[in-house]
Amino acid sequence: MAYAEQAETALLHEPKSFLTRYIWSQDHKVIAIQYSLTAIFVGLIALVLSALMRMQIGFPGSLEFMDASTYYQAMTMHGMIMVIYLLTALFLGGFGNYLIPLMVGSRDMVFPYVNMLSYWFYLLSVIVLLASFFVPGGPTGAGWTLYPPQAITQGSPGTEWGIVLMLVSLAIFIVAATMGGLNYVTTVLQARTHGMTLLRMPLSVWGIFMASILALLAFPALFVSAVMMLFDKLLGTSFFMPAIISMGQALDHQGGSPILFQHLFWFFGHPEVYIVALPAFGLVSDLISTHARKNIFGYRMMVWAIVAIGVLSFVVWAHHMYVSGMNPYFGFFFATTTLVIAVPTALKVYNWVLTLWRGDIHLTVPMLFALAFIVTFLVGGLTGLFLGNVIVDIPLSDTYFVVAHFHMVMGVAPILVVFGAIYHWFPKITGRLLDDRLGKLHFWITFLGTYAIYFPMHYLGFLGMPRRYYAYENYAFIPQSAQDLNAFITVAALIVGVSQLLFLFNLFWSAFRGKPAGSNPWGATSLEWQTPDTPPVHGNWGAKLPVVHRWAYDYSVPGIEQDFVPQTVSDEELGRMRRRAGETQRADAKP
Amino acid sequence: MNQLLLRDASSAEPGGSWNPDPGGIQAAEGGDRARTARVGLRLLLVAVSSLFFLFMVAFILRSQVADWQPLTEPLAPLASPWPLWLNSALLVVASIALQWARMAARRGRLGATVGGFALGGVFALAFLLGQLWVWQRFAAWGYFLASNPANSFFYLLTGLHGVHLLGGLVAWGRTLVKFRQRMPLAQLSASVELCAIYWHYLLGLWLVLFALLTSTPETYQAIAAFCGLR
After folding, report:
1. CATH number of residue B109's parent domain
2. Which of A268, A492, A563, B99 lies at a 20 to 30 A Cα distance from B152?
3. Minimum mean pLDDT among A223-237, A429-443, A462-476: which range?
4. Within a domain: residue B63?
């Protein structure tokens, strides 16, 4: 067998000093934690920004420093940070880094040095992004879609420095994501241990694997648009800038196509939705199966659904552009593909529900978050079916209905999975359990709170309340009651925002004082729970790599005592477990 | 009914298709580092292809706007693109030299490997200088970056291609240092292989870009019509 001796004995370059162990680390677990903490840190900034916006909408004029420009800057930075610097980085850089090598039975990523570079580029992109708060004119206020010409034309906030820093930061982030993505995909393809076939991989790995492929193909579109917009802004080209009169003066540009930017942006932007959603799908499948003590229903179907969603996500982008104007046949095409993508997605939802059906459901904190995800994703997905149709989308476009839809489906739903997954894997990462009561409190406030925020927004959208407005006074079609509802939403948002402190406290308190977890507190089957040490040490597996004999979902197997069979258990060993269980049964039956 | 939902473990389904031999999968840090590196490089090239493909789509779309002044017009710098032909020839030679080094490395001939490898990098450098010279000619003729979208795309696409080649030259330089440190050929051949793959890819990409940049407006129109962009 080509399986090299060297692999068993030669542990990779064991780090010697504090610096190489924790700062310039090439260990995938340390890099994962670095990625996660950085992402959570910028996520908190984006959370504060959203609270500022809500204060302005719910209680206009209550914040002295809030004017229209500040509002747009807060809105832009909130959106961009949440989508890219929090969710993408956390799912791929955080969970991808931590789980892929452990779940496929490898000692590390295949290119540890590139993996380290990936984190440091990510950190650099975050620093460049945050620097825009401190430059003259402040960060860009162009909206997270950064549409030209307004993004780089005087009048929008931050057109001097802010937009340049934003575009540069995005370009750096894309380099980081590409280096990470190469690692994740190559590791899955090349570094799986004995017996770990593609169709024995946990769905978490499948989700992150497919999302990384999407990232490798879709992020270049954002790179292209960022580079060309930088050229337009700094070097006076006219890729996107049409002939335009700004502040009474004709600019030097002519002939550029703003629609071209929109196509490029959404060719990235829609796959981006699934770059965030597919890892969430994968992780939640594992949470549900483990905590319902049942094998995932329709494993192969789930894998194919992930692949199908990934492929389809590249042919739906223009449904973000129905109001930009396009050939009616294109509208028809993109509406159709958008509705078709609901098929594999719905299959996944059915399979989650069928996994739960007659399962031995443990309402642990991770399971609560997983269940909340199914409901939230369903609500957000159904409004997506509305918006996917051109004739329904046009009146609802740019209203709070859209805000409610995308926050439910790609804001709240993935974040619920992030929380569930952190509660689930925290014991492996630190060796200690997160506090259960705090976790449940955090769950209920977050779950009910987000519904209090986003459910009413659907109604506001039906009233025609436009999004992206700084103030809503003196519009005849918006009744006073809408203002009351907005105040209610703001209060709910502030409560949810503050309650995240519970989670942060829990995270740091439990990391040092939490209950020791043991190596496999949930009785899970996949490889990361079978490591010789908890938390796993450098090299993950001690002297010998694990050998895989089965898929990751053997829960509640009939005829044995424990209700799960780890992936490392061979058939002979399973036979012994059966005989032992049989003997105990006979002994019990005797008296 | 539960029997349907709860699968018996002894059936161990789904038990591993998509791998001819589930037991034979290799650990990455084992003997097959070189193979892993090749897979990684090919994936990178897929991402780079996506990047340039999208630039080319943008190129075609933008070329259909009235203010586009083709570079192939009688008095424009690409009316007779002989400097680009010259540069292409340099890049072809670079690619051949690296392929030669790759084959020599497989046969274990150190001298030929070093020679071919060094030549490949030198000719790539010459190509880059040639491209800079073409830029200079453009500027001398008054064809600046911002004066027309066709110029903008010419500078942008050739520049990005050059940046990718520069990145390759960094890897090439590092390998050259390893040659000087007299590492065994077996270790070096993997690097030579990777450089060769990358050079061939960039040659192919350049030929596509070359064809695109020197095509006539009618061709762009036909492509745009074919893609439904008109």
Report:
1. 1.20.120.80
2. A268
3. A462-476
4. no
Q: Dihedral sign for Cα A281, A283, A285, A287, please.
A: negative
A214 in contact with chain B, both atoms CB, cutoff 8 A: no
What is the enclosing helix (H) or strand (E) of A250?
strand A249-250
Are the Cβ atoms of B26 and A294 closer than 8 angstroms?
A: no
More confident position, B185 or A504: A504
SS3 A57: helix
Tally of domains in chain B: 1
Q: Which two tokens stand for residue B62?
A: 């933008």
Query: Which of A488, A491, A565, A558 is closest to A523 using CA atoms?
Result: A565
How far off is chain A from B207, nearest CA to CA, in Å? 20
Query: Number of A:B CB contacts under 8 A?
Result: 198
ipTM of model: 0.92
- Interatomic CA distance for residues A284 and A277, integer angstroms: 10
CA angle, A177 as apex, B34 and A149 as ends, to 5°? 140
User: Is A328 in CB contact (< 8 Å) with chain B?
Assistant: no
**Based on C-alpha coordinates, what's the Rg of chain A?**
25
Q: Is A228 on the interface with B (CB under 8 A)?
A: yes
| Residue B117: inside a domain | yes
Q: Are strands A245-246 and A249-250 parallel, antiparallel or unpaired?
A: antiparallel
Choosing among A109, A118, A193, A197, which should be mutated to test the B contact, i.e. which has the most B CBs within 10 A? A197
Token pair of B75 as six digits: 């008095």
Measured CA to CA, the distance from residue A103 to residue A96 in angstroms comes to: 10
Q: Is residue B43 part of a domain?
A: no
Instruction: Indicate the Cα dihedral angle A110, A113, A116, A122, nearest 10°.
Output: -90
The three-class DSSP label of residue B77 is: coil
List chain A domain ranges: 540-591
The model's pLDDT over A137-161, given as tens digits with 9 standing for 90+, comes to 999 999 999 999 999 999 899 999 9
B188 in any annotated domain: yes
CA distance A240 to A262: 10
CA distance A384 to B98: 52
User: What domain range is B178 assigned to?
Assistant: 81-215
Distance (Å, whole) CA A355 – CA B5: 8
| Residues comprising chain A, all counted | 591
Are residues A176 and A85 in contact, defined by beta-carbon separation less than 8 angstroms? no
